[in-house]
Amino acid sequence: MDLRYVRYAMAIARAGSLRRAAAALHIAQPTLSEQLKALEKEIGVELFSRSSSGVQLTEAGEAFLAQATVAVDAFERAVAAARSKGATSRLGVADGLADVAARLLSQLQNLRLRVVPMGTAEQIVSIVDGTLQAGLGYAPGSLPRGVARMLIHRFPVRALVHRDHPLAASEAVSLAELTTEPLVMPESDAVAGARRFLEGFVRHRLHPRLGPAAATHDLAITMVERGAGYTLSVHEGTPVPETLAFVPIKEDVPPLEVVFLWNRQADVPELVSAARHVARSG
User: Fold this and answer.
1) Of 4, 56, 180, 253, whose CB neighbour count within 10 A is largest?
2) At CA 264, angle to CA 261 and CA 266, rounded to 5?
3) How are beta strands 182-186 and 158-162 bridged, if at all?
4) Helix or strand or coil: residue 179?
5) Which pLDDT score is estimated for 25?
6) Nearest Cα to Cα of residue 95 among 260, 278, 234
7) Nearest to 85 by CA among 267, 241, 220, 272
């Protein structure tokens, strides 16, 4: 038996007429009438009595639809359950957040998940159009409707320098001292956070000395290790070579904020729960 015909019969019962049911289903009335007749022929009884004022369920029709409705609902739940088990959610991860992603993934067990390298801005666009269910990125200025945000962690800003550099021995370094050194800036999504750090220089009427740009977050670390300068965009949760050291900054600099983003309409309770766990654990 074709479940479409059963759904059509349910629609006819709700509408009370073939004309209104056909309009609601966006099919031609003669076609709907033929399909109803085919269903009644297969069952062997009339489901509706026809009159000039519309249609009405027969006693047999009431008995049939009472059970058919339960069967259709059960079928739809079965399909939804199968799809949820077979579906693969996509999680975007911005450059430089591999360690945060690892903490999030450690909270997930049976979820089918594909991790995709993706900048924060691209994550937001993909979450809106439904091609991405969630993401880890750097705090954006604003979000469109339908995209939710959860603060995962605030990382205090530190200068990452080579251990052989004189500033590495300092308990804290001032922004004025850093202006004499080249600042290695990543060109990736992490630069959005680094730009906020530059506001600290501006507030103190200082002009940082920009050094070479790095294509990725990891390359910025490598360049600092090779003596190209220092960087501000690397948070302390990121593994770095032993030849490098994080040094606190004396002035108040906006922290690096990492956020979990997700589509409010997406069915991703496991991901949201894991993100909350990461946020609580710091």
Assistant:
1) 253
2) 95
3) unpaired
4) coil
5) 81
6) 234
7) 267
